[in-house]
User: Fold these one by one.
Assistant:
Number 1:
Amino acid sequence: MQENSYLCAKIQKNMENNTIEMSLLDPEERELVEYIYKAIPAEDKGELTADDILLVLDLMDDYLEEQGLLREDPKTGEMEYLDGDVDETEQLNYVLQACREEGRPISSVQIQLIQDAELQYGIEKGYYEEE
């Protein structure tokens, strides 16, 4: 139990150095970012920040919108995911190119790890079905 507290404190300290204010995120988004950050092995984190994770997540959604798999519900204004297949390699390439255009040094390995962790989080929360 003490090891878990230490890990949480270390993650919090690392994430406090990011430019976004973590306390401004809604609780679920904060939980997702922390989950992803914890899931990425130390040797692959490099200088990866919460900003980088959020950028990749936003770009993943941009890709889904372009593919017609994510849209805004006109009645509620909430974003809703539509059924369909996602070409993960194509999505990875889309995100990698957009990160480069943003001048963000996020590697394809880091993007893949973020994608994988987001998927695992969604499976654990019941948002996605395990294939």
Number 2:
Amino acid sequence: MDSSAILQKRYLSINPVNSGEGVYGYSSGLPQIIFNLGSSGLLQTEEVRLSFNLRIVETGQTTNNVDPAKQISVGFFNGAESVMDEIEISSTNYGRSLERIDHYARMNASVNSALHSKSQYDSHLTHEQGSIGVGITTSQQLKEELDSDAQHFIVNGTVKNQGAVLRNNVEGRECSMRVVCGLFLSQQHISLDDVGGLTLRIKLAPNEAVISDIASITGEAAATPSDFHYEIVNPRLIAGCVLETPAAVQQRMANPTPTMNFLSYSSFYNNIISTDFQVLHKINASAVISSFSNFIPSKNLNNYNAFSDAQMNPNIQELTFQKDGQRVPLQYELRSDQDRVLTDDDFQPTTFPAMLYHYLSSWGAPADRMKSSINPLISAIRATNDEYGCWGIGCSYDTEHQGINGKVANIGFQIKSKLLDPDAGDNTTQTPYSAFSYYLCKNELVVNRGQGVAVVN
């Protein structure tokens, strides 16, 4: 944009339109948070952030359970972002949905771990949402971590809290995180006048999907997770907005039907019950750019005794990406190179290198990915089985970011896996897995001033 067209830039602190009593939560307060981002100016999408105070409240109490010596375990890679189960962005005046993402916390667990290294967790993500990632790259470091008296997690015990919310403030733990979605990753200014304003709706997750391992936190050996729930207070949306000069506004308004390209994520859920399973999705988009999926045993979802956002490997042995039964974009199947003779995962020579390479390509060329938590140890079977690993499958559908046509086609993948139960500790017991898939699509927004907006996808 021409800087001469900019009158001034300002940062807005926006309160929810459904304020109620000011408390939000799945079982206490309002179960969703709704923000209106206004209807004038140019929204700087890369600067939209959600801020709030997270409180952990014991049943029957009304204030944050404060004890400086105690903490609440949160996810390894998404921390307090786990409170968000679904987000939707729509046009305020026209009521047209532009993007909706289900299972939002699980998506962020993959995005954060794939695009941030341990040092980036230490430097800013831990301040934003409470998780500090996993910074182990060798088996020796893993052994030292497990043998340490000050370990961040315990594999053979129960504590696996690489993220923690300290309970040392009656107002709760302050969090401030970027809103990750396709629309806000489009790297452009959005004219709020043109789209009729924007509304952000956040649906909150169940308590058992957020609070985990509470019984194993230091000083609370006798506590049970179901005795606690979370609350969100003082939520606000921080957004950067550019005001245009009158001349720039007049020039823009002279176009009666402006258009805008933007990105969006589509989300899907499948239950995998067979060791040879095909997952297909009707994306209904003419430009599907990339996709990624993560997995977890179905019994671990919404479970106080497990991390609901853990990224676990169902022991995939073969993987093929498909479009209408044809191999797309890879013309070959990916096979894990795990040694079947070696029963101790510590001694596996490598970890699914081709699968991880293409998984990283979901966010651009892997060669350009200078920072990531993905590595042969943290993405190994042992790490994912013990819930502190980061792993998934994915691919890029083309290198020019024009995407493949998914308007009428079925797009997905076929996997052959063992579906091993990580709690069984053997090589035979199986359990169903849940697969969460996310597709990045390119769309066009067409505005008819005074009449409405249409999404062409």
Number 3:
Amino acid sequence: MPGSVTAGPVNSSVGHTSSNMQEAATTTWKKRIDRPLGVYLITIYDFLVVGLIPLLTFVLFVRNSDTEMSLPATMLSVGLYIVVMAFSVWACVGDNIGRWLLLSAVTLTAVMWIVNAVFILSNMDLPSGEKPSVIGFISRGVMALALNWWYFNRKTTVAYYKRDAPAG
């Protein structure tokens, strides 16, 4: 018909072509695929070994102990373990701020373990059977520090966390 306009396929997204939408979907999909396996492993390790297991151990110790713990020390310990678990989830999602916050929380937790263990070894008379468990806190703290700082500062891991950062 003269004067009639023939319309092509209608796209419900105003201003977007179907190829742009496919590219956006592909880009989003690629970002999910690009996450290194180590990010899952280290954040799960931090959640369990630096957060959940020490929290449960601490709660069981406090419940079954005759010694009274100070409220600030208890709140600091429990709060730090919960913060490590929260930041490990945040870092697992892929946020760079979450990575730095997890590194700082793991560092504080490991330093707390090491300082407390050194204090216990130097100031208390422990039965010989308890010394290896106290020394275990030192080795766990050093291992958590070394593993986290090494992995989260690797070139490929940093590139993953900075993938959305504006160039400049």
